[in-house]
Design brief:
It is a single chain. By secondary structure, the protein is mostly helical. It has a domain at 284-376. 60% of the residues lie in helices and 0% in strands. It contains 24 helices and no strands. It has helices at 15-20, 25-30, 40-47, 50-53, 58-62, 85-96, 99-102, 111-117, 119-127, 135-139, 159-167, 170-174, 182-187, 190-197, 206-210, 223-228, 232-238, 244-248, 255-259, 270-275, 277-280, 284-316, 322-341, 347-406. α8 (111-117) packs across α9 (119-127). The structure holds heme C (HEC) (9 copies). One heme C (HEC) binds next to α6, α8 and α10.
């Protein structure tokens, strides 16, 4: 299997042309392998890679006779063309597990060790399974870029595709009884929306949750840890809920029990209707708690939204709603708090916050009503003024006509 050298063209290359290869004359001059392996694409791919830029040449990976200038180069004892994934791992690790070689670049040297702990690594080294991912499946072969480079298959926005090459392959996944829709599912998620549509690199991609080299699904007990790396507050509050205890002993899956894992949607009140019945369909007590909490949130949200609409309308009419907008912001802060706080499922903790939100909403509405009153009052006060002006204008016109008549015009 080779992605990056689809065809080899055996052409004697002109050394001059190689020397011209942008900024890479040093590599080219030493790398006589390129004399034959000069397929334009191959050369371009390699010479643009992080390896070529660091002065790595063909022989550093493949070995070969440095003195031979022809095909006898391949005959050297150290020549290798890795034909299985363990050999590839060994080839890469020769440098990447060598602290002395990697120190100048500040790169960690634990990739292979960690890889061995992943499901991929366990399969390869445990059962010699050649279908799992090895270094080159995720990084490329000759065109390896810095991992964070936008061109790299390991750049966050490219990761779903990199993993999807195998994890969306229904036939391959069926052999392992694994779902082949994880990437599709992920692409429907709010996280993917943030990452792929908004370019928000703080949203998680496959490797954020699964690890890159130690890729394994988080065990049930660790799942809430994964989410909690980013959603610190929610994790802390979940820890106070009656689900924390069953979660600690593996009887509850943590965040994903309610939110799912790959297809996580933007949270909404619908979740109360969908999630709790998965386990409590017949538990009147738990459903009672659910209805109370959902009711509290729904009421507060509705009131907040209608106050927002009122303020927007008043602002559109030109009223000075600065104070009301501040009040709304306060209500919003309490509402946001409430949305997180419901993770405790503790009604006594929720109630005071809901009251604070409702108070801010009431203050907002009071403010808008006052502004409207003032406006009405002003409008009403204008009526006599207008009437006075009209009468005055009429009188003035009559007087004018009288004067005109008197002067005989
Ligand atoms: C970072 C290490 C590395 C470097 C540097 C490297 N290669 Fe490779 N090369 C590999 C690996 C790994 C494979 C095996 C890929 C596979 O089978 O999936 C390979 C495969 C090949 C193949 C076989 C391709 C095929 O279609 O079967 C050729 C030819 C080759 N390399 C030539 C070169 C030349 C020429 C250079 C210098 C320009 C070079 N390589 C530099 C790692 C490297
Ligand atoms: C005189 C030209 C020439 C030189 C010099 C040369 N190669 Fe090759 N190389 C070839 C040809 C031709 C093939 C294709 C042979 C084949 O397909 O069996 C090849 C095949 C390969 C392969 C794939 C072997 C396989 O089993 O699939 C690798 C890897 C490779 N060369 C690496 C190198 C490296 C590294 C050097 C420098 C040390 C080098 N070559 C120097 C002509 C050359
Ligand atoms: C399942 C995919 C995958 C496999 C297999 C894999 N890597 Fe990575 N690797 C990644 C990702 C993704 C990153 C980038 C992480 C990030 O963005 O910080 C990475 C980062 C790296 C880095 C940059 C330094 C670091 O550790 O973050 C090096 C070097 C590296 N990998 C080498 C290797 C080597 C060598 C192997 C084989 C032993 C390997 N990788 C196997 C996905 C993989
Ligand atoms: C001869 C030593 C050597 C071998 C063999 C080697 N590498 Fe590298 N690798 C390097 C050096 C040196 C760098 C450059 C580091 C830099 O510029 O930051 C590098 C960089 C990388 C990077 C980019 C890391 C970053 O900074 O983002 C990745 C990924 C990588 N190598 C993967 C591989 C893989 C996969 C293999 C096996 C196919 C491999 N390397 C084989 C020496 C080697
Ligand atoms: C070259 C194909 C290939 C690529 C690329 C690949 N994987 Fe895999 N992966 C597999 C195969 C095959 C398995 C099944 C191993 C098993 O379960 O025995 C697997 C298993 C897994 C598992 C364990 C699933 C389980 O419950 O057993 C996780 C997690 C995983 N891969 C994540 C990833 C991530 C994340 C990426 C991308 C960074 C990725 N894989 C890239 C082939 C691949
Ligand atoms: C937000 C975190 C998160 C992201 C992002 C994520 N996963 Fe997962 N994934 C999980 C969790 C948690 C599980 C374990 C589910 C369980 O135990 O029920 C899992 C399970 C898996 C499994 C095993 C499925 C099974 O049914 O056994 C595979 C394979 C997998 N993920 C691959 C991927 C790939 C590929 C991507 C990127 C498209 C990805 N994951 C993105 C959290 C995540
Ligand atoms: C790498 C960080 C990261 C990880 C890990 C992560 N998320 Fe997120 N998540 C985000 C970001 C960033 C947002 C968007 C900002 C926000 O709304 O908090 C988000 C949004 C969400 C939302 C929608 C929030 C809303 O406003 O409606 C939910 C629900 C969610 N994540 C659940 C989870 C769950 C469950 C997990 C674990 C399986 C998880 N996340 C793992 C970063 C992460
Ligand atoms: C994945 C299954 C699952 C889901 C989904 C789930 N629960 Fe639970 N819940 C449990 C388990 C297990 C317990 C602990 C054992 C018990 O008391 O039934 C529990 C306990 C509770 C308790 C404490 C009961 C007591 O007697 O102290 C409340 C309240 C509760 N859940 C409410 C909810 C609400 C509300 C939802 C939806 C937002 C929900 N649960 C979703 C499994 C679940
Ligand atoms: C028992 C079910 C349940 C569990 C377990 C759960 N959530 Fe939620 N989560 C919900 C519901 C329901 C909402 C929607 C609340 C709303 O409409 O405002 C929500 C909302 C959210 C939000 C968006 C609102 C906010 O607080 O910003 C995030 C983010 C979130 N959850 C993350 C998590 C994380 C992380 C975990 C695990 C630590 C987790 N959830 C565990 C039911 C759950």
């Amino acid at each position: 299997m080779n992605l990056f050298l689809p065809s080899l063209i055996y052409r004697r290359a002109s050394a001059a042309l190689l020397l011209l290869a942008a900024g890479s004359w040093l590599v080219a001059a030493e790398d006589f392998c390129l004399n034959c392996h000069d397929h334009q694409k191959q050369r371009e791919q390699f010479l643009g890679s992080a390896h070529a830029q660091a002065g790595v040449i063909c022989r550093d990976c493949h070995g070969g006779d440095a003195k031979a200038k022809d095909e006898t180069a391949h005959l050297a004892a150290n020549f290798q063309r890795p034909d299985n994934k363990k050999a590839i791992a060994a080839m890469c690790a020769r440098c990447h597990s060598d602290v002395r070689r990697m120190n100048p670049y500040g790169l960690p040297t634990d990739q292979l060790d960690r890889y061995k702990t992943s499901k991929h690594g366990e399969q390869l080294f445990g059962s010699n399974d050649q279908k799992v991912a090895i270094c080159t499946d995720c990084h490329g072969v000759h065109n390896i870029f810095k991992v964070r480079s936008p061109q790299s298959p390991t750049h966050p926005t490219n990761i779903p595709q990199t993993c999807g090459r195998c994890h969306s392959d229904a036939k391959l996944m069926a052999g392992y009884k694994l779902p082949s829709d994880v990437v599709e599912q992920y692409k429907t998620s709010y996280h993917a929306h943030l990452l792929l549509q908004k370019g928000d690199l703080s949203a998680p991609t496959c490797v954020t949750c699964h690890g890159n080299h130690g890729a394994r699904p988080p065990g049930v007990a660790e799942v809430s840890q994964v989410c909690g790396k980013c959603h610190v507050r929610q994790a802390e509050l979940f820890g106070k809920s009656p689900h924390a205890e069953p979660a600690a002993v593996g009887l509850f899956g943590g965040c994903i029990s309610c939110h799912g894992n790959h297809g996580i949607q933007k949270a909404s009140l619908n979740l109360f209707a969908e999630a709790c019945v998965k386990c409590h369909a017949k538990d009147a007590k738990q459903l009672g708690v659910r209805d109370q909490i959902a009711g509290l949130l729904r009421q507060t949200t509705t009131d907040y939204e209608s106050a927002t609409a009122k303020v927007r309308e008043a602002t559109r009419r030109g009223l000075a709603t600065d104070d009301e907008q501040l009040q709304l912001q306060e209500a919003h802060t309490h509402l946001t708090q409430l949305e997180a706080l419901q993770h405790t499922l503790a009604i006594p903790l929720l109630q005071p916050v809901a009251v604070r939100a409702e108070t801010a909403v009431k203050e907002t509405l009071k403010g808008v009503a006052w502004l409207e009153n003032v406006e009405n009052w002003k409008r009403r006060a204008l009526i006599p003024i207008w009437a006075f002006l009209v009468v005055m204008a009429g009188l003035f016109a009559a007087k004018r006509r009288q004067i005109d008549k008197r002067e005989g015009k």
